[in-house]
Amino acid sequence: MINISDDIITRTVSRVLVPFIQIYALYVIMHGHHSPGGGFQGGVILGASFILYLITHGLEDAKKRMSELKMGLFSTFGLLIYSGIGLLCLILGGNYLDYGRLSTILKVIPAQARSLGILGVEIGVGITVMAVMFSIFFDISTGGVLPEDEEGLGTSDE
Amino acid sequence: MNNFLLCLGMGLFALVFLCLYRGIFGPGILNRIAAISAIGTKTLVILLIMGFIYNRVDMFVDISMVYALLNFIGTITAAKYLEIGGEV
After folding, report:
1. Distance between CA A156 and CA A65 in Å, rounded?
2. B45 in contact with chain A, both atoms CB, cutoff 8 A
3. What is the distance in angstroms between the Cα of B72 and the nearest Cα belonging to chain A?
4. What pLDDT does A21 receive?
5. pLDDT tens profile A22-53
6. Distance between CA B5 and CA B21 in Å, rounded?
């Protein structure tokens, strides 16, 4: 069980740093086709910001911001975006993830439709990776026992 | 200018091995954590020097920022693991 950190320096630095990390993660996702990065890398950075918050502010506080249920929903939602865009291309008569076909819906030229399509897929991948990263860390830090189970059994030893 | 940057990078590369010695044989876990953190900082500077050599600083700045970030979070996590009473 991770409790809130006693050290004021760690708490203050992380509180200042977390929003900037998240903005940087969004930059990495959005700018993935011009610079190193993309959906997975941006998602990892976004997940790392939540992990930093969990480490410095404790499990209870982090659960209020990002519960396990929300993380599960986010991970499936990102997958839905990814496969939805792929299936949309399939329905419009192309191959799976053939973004050029989206030009009929988006009313732009095919080159721009490819750029927008890959951006949508990267956003989906980023959301999924962020949720799964945080979920794995959440499960490891609780040792497999969810806090509400622990309270119910009355075996909280900390 | 390029030769100067190359020599600087190789000097830092040699210094990484000194930190690696402290990281492997260092007495105690705290020396090891500090050594790994110092290696991360040196790697960040080496990445920026590589960016200057290849004239692609705009790309290497992104990579080194992520490296600094994950290095910071890794060090904080290791310190937290010690604080809540992990095995040393």
Report:
1. 22
2. no
3. 9
4. 92
5. 999 999 998 887 778 788 999 999 999 999 99
6. 25
Interface of A with B (CB under 8 A): 1-3, 5, 10, 14, 21, 24, 28, 35-37, 41, 45, 48, 51-52, 55-56
Within 13 A of A147's CA, how many CA atoms are on the CB side? 15
pLDDT in tens, B30-39: 899 999 999 9
Phi, psi of A95 (to 5 degrees): -85, 175
**CA distances (Å), origin B10, targets A42, A85, B18, B27:** 31, 47, 13, 27
Closest chain A residue to the Cα of B65, Cα to Cα: A24
Domain ranges of chain A: 8-143
Q: At A92, phi and psi to the nearest 5?
A: -75, 5
pLDDT in tens, B39-58: 999 999 999 999 999 998 88
In the predicted structure, residue A86 carries a pLDDT above the cut 60: yes
Amino acid letter, residue B3 = N
- In chain A, residues with a C-beta closer than 8 Å to the C-beta of B47 are none
Residue A153 backbone phi and psi in degrees, to 5: -80, -15
Query: B79 to chain A, minimum CA–CA distance in Å?
Result: 10
A20 CA to centre of own chain: 15
The answer to whether B76 contacts A28, with C-beta atoms less than 8 Å apart, is: no
**What is the Cα–Cα distance from A126 to A130, expressed in whole angstroms?**
6
Distance from CA of B77 to the nearest CA of A (A): 7
